[in-house]
Specification:
Elements: H1 2-12, H2 18-54
Helix pairs in contact: 1-2
């Protein structure tokens, strides 16, 4: 949804604003990737603790 709005803004924005919009999109993607990685890391830690308690 946000990316669609940004894409619309990108198509209408003058050339001067385009680098700003691109950087916003990149930071959004990076934030999503880091949250996924953080969740996976947290899940791995929880799984390791559970396995440690069960064994």
């Amino acid at each position: 949804m946000v990316t669609r709005i940004l894409a619309l803004a990108f198509s209408f924005a003058p050339v001067t604003f385009r680098p700003i919009i691109v950087s916003i999109i990149i930071s959004d993607v990076v934030r999503i990737l880091f949250s996924i990685l953080g969740f996976a890391f947290f899940f791995l830690i929880v799984a390791a603790v559970v396995v440690g308690l069960l064994s």
